[in-house]
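Apologies for my clumsy wording, but are you able to produce some protein sequence, whichever is easiest, and the tokens describing how it folds?
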Amino acid sequence: MPSMLLERLTMKRESKSYIDSLHAILTDAHLFDGPKYRLSGLTGMAFKFTVHERLLPLSVTAYGQWTAEHKPAIDNLGLFTVMDAGRTRHPTFRHYQQDAVNWVKGSLEQGIGVIYWLPEFGVISGYDDEDRVFFVQDGRSTEPQIVLYDNFGINFTEFWYCQILGDKKVDIPYEAMLLESLRLAISDWDTPYKTLPNKDIASGKLAYDFLISALNKGDYDEGGAVYILDSYFHSRKEINAYLHEACGIWPKLDDASACYDQLAEAIPDMKRCIATTKEGRKINRAQCSNLIKRLAEAQLLEDQAVGLFREVSRTYPDLKRSIVPRWGTHTPK
């Protein structure tokens, strides 16, 4: 019975779990050469910000329909990708599950790891046909998790997700990728709800309002609040580093970078509003008003930066969004 393990493939949790997984796979397969913040910026993932009305920890990965969110991210890298996802309750799930088991093994045999929803996102780095298992890294432990072929996609959430990546098919100029990432950022900022018809999770600019409102009310998930803020702090530092790297290309982008400089300078003060207790890390309620004030200032700074992104975007034609195909447009079902 065949088995294999991509021994050099190592995932480490630092950013959003999707980017942690993607960066590990692409660097191991020599499909991306660069720091994680650059990958997070180019894919637009750094700009995604979603908050549940009660600050539940699911906020961080509930940034929309994953296939719709991740496809533009990978397209902007010029890479081939295949993904499948859905709800495990669907009667066709078992058919898609067994099909996915086969193409996951095929990707591993080509030396390329696979993104998999555990939850959160992790990396499939090997398999063993004799035991009928996959080896999955979650980025937090050095020991891989074991997922039976028969249990592939089954977890305590109702969702499953799997994605493979292929060779680079298109060489996209850096400036074109940068411009598209700004447009992805604008779209995320302007879209208040990514998981309609539900409106308990806000995106972009409205996510700040949800976060501030929950902190004001005091009725929120303690662990979720800290997790959302940790992710927010890290992603905003990623954006700051990403824009610094792009400085000098467009003057308006330099101005936007200055906005994120100011936001990044406020992060240490916001971090001091999180206390470590015997029960774990929590928002220090005595510091909540200062945190709210800082978040409101950050929202204004980010809104100003996105406005500058718009000015850059308007300078160049956007054929992807301005041309309607002859068969028209449609909205997600």
